[in-house]
Amino acid sequence: MDPATNPARVIAVSGHRNSGKTTLVEALTRRLTAEGLRVAWIKRTHHALQIDQPGKDTDRLFNAGADVGMESEEQHFMRRHPTPLTARMPIIQDMLQTHDLVLVEGGKPLPIPKVWCARPGEPHPPADVENIVATLPWDSERIEPCFEIVRDQLEQGWKETPIFGGVLIGGHSERMGRPKQSIEWKSRSFARTVADALTSQAEQILLLGDGPVPADCGSLFCLPDPPGVSGPLAGMLSAMRWAPDAAWLFAACDMPLITAEALAWLREQRRPGRWAVLPTLDGDRPEPLLSIWELMMRGTLEHRVHEGHLAPRLLKDHTKAEMIAVPAELQSAWKNINTPTDLDQLK
Question: 204 and 152, same structural domain?
Answer without folding.
Answer: no
